[in-house]
Design the sequence.
């Protein structure tokens, strides 16, 4: 140490320091670029080429009948070029795809592929063309969301179809907006970015990821808090409440009048 | 047992053979009195007594439930955790509601059961009073003629005529007062023809108020839109009134899906982006249920369906007119702006809608 401090003012000390600095920056930069190159060998969405290959195999075996051998689409199903990994995550992850039968819209059912397979399919579809990807966990963390703000956004953008309480509702010609109770955060998010079935697309330019997180936080809060008093009757408002009071309520009234006027045995 | 009917033969409806003047069916009288179980069996009476007491006790329990719910359950705002508070609220509501119901129902059912099983049950018949006698009619006629006589209304036509004139004029203030409800001058029916949209007004997102670039909408997107100048209105009430007329749904379709526009409307959209009023032309519900593949817009109130690909024409339901389309374009900075106001009044039909517009902005 003593020797170093003595040579501190040596004329070449400055040059040595400069060299050392340049070496360090250059080395770090080189290391960083190799990391980037390593990532670049994956697809832009961060899927590995193995996942894409495996996904293609699954696709050909399970989806190509309707969507075509190269996902180019056919009369029975749309092209999947550019629909993105988010579409696969939603459609396959909620069991809507593979479809059981043609109808007004695909029905939700227990998923036929496990998470790993769903990711592989998503990797393959994402490799076909750029589209909405699977959201970062940051945007699905409801603890960071603002449920009150999410409620306002929900009432403006979603409630007209999905009901103010997220219980779902009817659309035209047999189609319907499903209930949002019990739906995974990632599926709520990917539904917004991809617009499955007849749902409009709410991309990140329309509703930014923070706002989407607020909406999910609102839905999860609503789901957790339950009905503030009595039976929710499906959260359908005057429809189910009216049906109950006009059938059960009137029957009770009629019954009590019959009892009131009948003679005791 | 009293006799059915009454003695006045002029007042009863006669039927039967038309000559005897009697009833078609002989009065069968009341069925024989049948003693109840509790009348003859002391054990049954005791059982009824216990049942009635049980119903009263149910009522007492219900009242206690109310007080437990009201006082013993902690109020929602005493919890730090929102969800624990909601659970307490639910318990509280249930105890108060069910408790009050039982408290009322228990007393009511108990008294009815008491009366039916234990209180005396001898039959009583109350004879109906005669409907009208000739004497009553004559008396009424006498009163009316008396009034005419005593008021001298026939003899003094001046009194009669001024009274009729006064009675005819008296309701007129009411007509004037109720006409004020119309407030034609203050309220201004002309306001219903115009909205905040005007040439160059930017389309902004509801509720954030951020402007919209054409590229923000991918095909299939739908966006809920208000005019940018809406936030300049200070009064909350006026802002809501203007918002109610100006709310717009913006959507982007594949341009190939759009049908050929009618002449004069060729440049109302921008590259597949179209905008329409959200106020239903039937009775004014918000039409915002948009199906992106069928391009249906459904009104949730009466199921009127509009086709966005054909200038929002009505394809189903009670609506009488297409939804008004807002002509839009893009400004120098790439943001979506309105080309003009709506070219017709938005929303349902109203009395003055078809009248000629004094400013000539709208076709009659």
Sequence:
């Amino acid at each position: 140490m003593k020797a170093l401090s003595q040579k501190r003012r040596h004329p070449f000390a400055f040059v040595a320091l400069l060299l050392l600095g340049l070496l360090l920056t250059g080395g770090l930069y080189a290391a960083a670029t190799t990391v980037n190159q390593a990532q670049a060998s994956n697809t832009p969405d961060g899927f590995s080429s193995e996942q894409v290959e495996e996904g293609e195999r699954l696709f050909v075996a399970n989806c190509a009948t309707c969507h075509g051998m190269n996902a180019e689409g056919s009369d029975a199903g749309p092209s999947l070029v550019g629909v993105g990994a988010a579409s696969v995550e939603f459609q396959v992850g909620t069991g809507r795809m593979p479809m059981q039968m043609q109808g007004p819209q695909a029905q939700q059912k227990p998923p036929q592929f496990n998470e790993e397979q769903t990711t592989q399919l998503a990797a393959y579809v994402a490799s076909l063309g750029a589209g909405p990807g699977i959201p970062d966990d940051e945007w699905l963390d409801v603890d960071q969301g603002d449920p009150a703000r999410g409620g306002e956004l929900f009432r403006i953008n979603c409630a007209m179809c999905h009901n103010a309480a997220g219980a779902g509702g009817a659309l035209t010609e047999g189609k319907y907006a499903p209930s949002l109770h019990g739906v995974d955060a990632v599926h709520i998010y990917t539904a917004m970015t991809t617009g499955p079935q007849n749902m409009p697309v709410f991309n990140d330019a329309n509703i930014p990821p923070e706002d989407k997180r607020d909406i999910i936080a609102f839905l999860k809060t609503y789901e957790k808090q339950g009905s503030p008093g009595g039976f929710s009757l499906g959260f359908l408002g005057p429809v189910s409440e009216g049906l109950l009071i006009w059938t059960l309520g009137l029957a009770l009234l009629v019954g009590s009048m019959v009892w009131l006027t009948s003679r005791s045995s | 047992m009293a006799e059915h009917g009454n003695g006045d033969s002029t007042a009863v409806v006669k039927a039967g053979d038309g000559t005897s003047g009697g009833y078609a069916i002989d009065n069968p009288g009341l069925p024989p009195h049948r003693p109840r179980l509790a009348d003859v069996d002391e054990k049954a009476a005791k059982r009824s007594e216990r049942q009635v007491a049980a119903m009263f006790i149910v009522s007492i329990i219900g009242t206690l439930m109310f007080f437990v719910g009201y006082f013993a359950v902690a109020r929602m705002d005493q919890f730090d955790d929102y969800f624990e508070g909601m659970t307490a609220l639910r318990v509280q509501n249930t105890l108060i509601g069910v408790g009050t119901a039982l408290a009322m129902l228990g007393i009511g059912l108990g008294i009815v059961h008491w009366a039916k099983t234990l209180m005396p049950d001898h039959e009583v018949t109350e004879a109906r009073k005669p409907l009208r006698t000739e004497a009553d009619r004559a008396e009424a006629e006498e009163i009316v003629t008396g009034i005419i006589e005593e008021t001298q209304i026939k003899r003094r036509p001046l009194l009669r005529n001024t009274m009729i004139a006064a009675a005819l004029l008296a309701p007129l203030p009411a007509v004037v007062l109720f006409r004020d409800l119309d407030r034609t001058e203050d309220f201004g029916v002309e306001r219903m023809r115009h909205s905040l949209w005007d040439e160059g007004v930017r389309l902004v997102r509801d509720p954030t108020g951020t402007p919209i670039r054409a590229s923000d909408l991918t095909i299939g997107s739908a966006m809920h839109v208000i005019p940018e100048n809406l936030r300049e209105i200070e009064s909350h009430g006026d802002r809501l009134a203007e918002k109610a007329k100006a709310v717009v749904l913006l959507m982007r379709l594949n341009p190939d899906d759009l049908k050929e526009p009618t002449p004069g409307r060729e440049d109302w959209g921008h590259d597949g982006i179209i905008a329409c009023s959200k106020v239903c032309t039937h009775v004014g519900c918000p039409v915002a249920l948009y199906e992106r593949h069928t391009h249906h817009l459904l009104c949730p109130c009466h199921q009127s369906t509009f086709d966005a690909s054909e200038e929002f024409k009505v394809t189903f339901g009670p609506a009488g007119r297409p939804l008004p389309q807002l002509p839009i374009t893009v400004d120098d900075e790439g943001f979506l702006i309105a080309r003009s106001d709506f070219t017709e009044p938005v929303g349902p039909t109203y009395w003055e809608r078809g009248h000629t517009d004094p400013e000539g902005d709208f076709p009659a």
